[in-house]
Amino acid sequence: VPTVYITGQVTEELIGTDAFQETDVIGMSMPVVKHSYFVNHAVDIPRVLKEAFYIASTGRPGPVHVDLAKNAWLTKATPDPDPKMDLPGYNPIPQISSDSEIKKIEQFLSKNNLKPLIIAGHGVELSRAEKELFEFAKHHDIPVVNTLLGLGTFPQGHDLWCGMMGMHGDAVANYAVAEADLIIGVGIRFDDRITGKLSEFIKNKTFIHIEIDPSEVNKNVPVALALYGDAAYILARAIALTDRHTFPSWRSRIAELKTKFGFLDFTLNPVHDSKFLSQPRLVKMISDATDGEAIVASDVGRHQMWTGRFYRFKHPNSHLSSGGLGSMGYGLPAAMGAAFGAPDREIWSISGDGGFMMNVQEMATVSEHHLPIRIVIMEDNSLGMVRQWQNLLFGGNISHSDLKNPDFVKLAEAFGIKAFRATTEAQAAQAITEARKVKGPALINFKVDPDEHVFPMVISGTALHEQALGDQDFKKTNDPNKPL
């Protein structure tokens, strides 16, 4: 995410003395930022900030940290309104593939009985390459699956779309990836949550990788053709330089998988306990009510996976989710950012009770700025995804995953936020309708099933095609003596 973080440091003369509140913030943050600056002279601030925003927003976007010594904050200086940047070691796009390299795609797509598949990731969204991806897929008749962070970059109602892949992806998407023999990765890093067992993932497959960051190429999978540069540019040139292709037998197989596994059918998740609301059904209700037009920020956990699976995103830049870090507490602050950045869009935040409590204090900010966010709390009095793993992988030993919650409705009201509670589907539908009418923030507390498991589930160390589709499949792939 292209962001610039500005922090305050003790005065320069006190650095290294363990002065009051001195902390090596640069040392702490360096592993997770794109670049760091320490500024001890006020005159350098204009240049440093100009460089910081440039670095954050170019190439592969990312966070930049600027740490200002207190004396730099307090010193008067005459700013240069347009300072010259000094970035001798920074090249946002170190290499761009030539037309002759891009045209090599033709060689791979011209093979007989090919089963090609596109995996579209967050890089598509970052490069604003949704149109080019769509045209490229149609041009070559290639099915498309999304990563979690790539959702919204391909029309979800189109026949070529096969859903979200990965550990808790759609069954159709995972089987399609497992059976494909040519993978075209666009703006992805092939992380473990989408590959499953890596040796099985790469078996009998050829990989083409379209990527702006060369460090990601050949990092996890062996790449036969690497195309470097902005995804929109590479895809546009690929369309212009290659002939059309069709893969009727492969498309027929995809259609067969969609029929067999009930593609996009949320009712395949059985209701575990009728005393509680079902999270995938609630996500579907929100999706239907908003017609897929909203920006939805999710926290981390089961609700995150169901949001990715069952909210039908109609637009890019609409799905906000903590990806590789899996940071609980992400949902509400992300929705706040969306409310400031896209005031014309409808904003929803979907969190579990555990994640919501990580940043519950931000309710004060939401109230102060009267942000029109619809805050959903899926309350199951547990860390739901942890509980699922404990149920399925640790013999049902529930350890430190049960929660004692406050009354979230009363809590919201204490912050001056309109709140609703729902324990039945009728109440849920009414709450969603009423919350959308509120001018300003609103909160809905849904009481959901603590033992409603997310399926499919690709168990760590297994392959995508070995995904468990339900409790009954889990028994086949694990110790039968372990209770579910």
Structure in a nutshell:
With 484 residues, this protein is α/β, with parallel strands linked by helices. The chain has helices spanning 25-29, 45-57, 70-74, 99-102, 105-109, 122-126, 130-140, 171-179, 192-195, 198-202, 231-241, 248-260, 279-290, 302-310, 331-341, 353-358, 363-368, 384-393, 408-414, 425-437, 471-477, and strands spanning 4-9, 35-39, 64-69, 116-120, 144-146, 161-164, 182-186, 206-211, 225-228, 295-298, 319-320, 347-352, 373-379, 418-422, 442-447.
Protein model, in words:
This protein has 484 residues and is an alpha/beta fold. It has helices at 25-29, 45-57, 70-74, 99-102, 105-109, 122-126, 130-140, 171-179, 192-195, 198-202, 231-241, 248-260, 279-290, 302-310, 331-341, 353-358, 363-368, 384-393, 408-414, 425-437, 471-477, and strands at residues 4-9, 35-39, 64-69, 116-120, 144-146, 161-164, 182-186, 206-211, 225-228, 295-298, 319-320, 347-352, 373-379, 418-422, 442-447. The protein has a six-stranded parallel β-sheet with strand order 6-5-4-7-8-9, sandwiched between helices. Strands 11-10-12-13-15-14 form a six-stranded parallel β-sheet, sandwiched between helices. Strand 10 (295-298), helix 14 and strand 11 form a beta-alpha-beta unit. The two termini are 39 Å apart. Residues 480-484 have low confidence and may be disordered.
